[in-house]
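Case study 2.
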Amino acid sequence: MRNRTKRVQKEIESIIGLLVLVAGLVGWYKFGTLKGVGISVGVTFGLIIIFSIWRKERFKKRVQQSRITEIDQMSGIEFEKYVGTLFESLGYRATYTPTTGDFGADLILKKGKEIIVVQAKRYKRSVGIAAVQEVIPAMKMYNASAAWVISNSYYTKAAIKLAKSNHVRMINRDELIQLGINFRKKQAGLSESVQTVEASTPLLSNVQEVKLTNKIEASIAATLESEAVSANELEAHLKKYRLKKSRESGLKAFHIFTNKTLDELVEKRPVTIDELRQIRGMGEKKIADFGAELVKVIRDLKLQ
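Prediction:
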């Protein structure tokens, strides 16, 4: 994943180097002294730092708005920073390793004495055994207490088996969606998620404590409850509903709702008609035809 972004990173470093060189030449041409060169280079570095801070804040805002469909389109380095930003909201300090010579870790998460090495895999296919093999030796290299692999996808059976035998935590697409939902709600001030992550526990949801600290509308509360249902389970029920309506109406399945709309339904989990209107691809006609049944599928799933 990182190999695809190394070239871009090197280009950025080359541009920064060129800017500093040009600044030095301009300083010498303008002032004719080493002090002038130093001032010119210093100002350039200052502008670069300001630009970097601006980019970081801009990326944080982007993270707040990112759904799983946007995450799927991220580059490898963008995904690493996305993961780091999520866990920084949980009280961790994220440090990113170099794009080359990372010794098997894409980023390091620290909280108190806890040190976690992380392999971040933004994949379109299932993540294989190599990710686990890479992160295991990184624990010793970085003197870490735990090793995680985090992905927007799922894992092969071999990867899961190796991870279990080496106590490596595997955070998959479902858990990533859950983290993203909680992060956005926390940033929006609708709820506060208090999450404690234990490296020895197999699933993040088993050790996640969610406390609602604000008075929120019933529809939001219902949404939070429905998030306990896995994304896979909800997706399966929605596909089943789509197939049923397709057969009843004689329409193609994508005319009921597209896969992009399906992804957004799974992530946002609307439980009212007003919330359903916020889903891309759900126009008034589709809402009139399928809206009430769709929100009922999502709302009632936890009771099935």
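Residues 14 and 269 are 44 Å apart (CA to CA).
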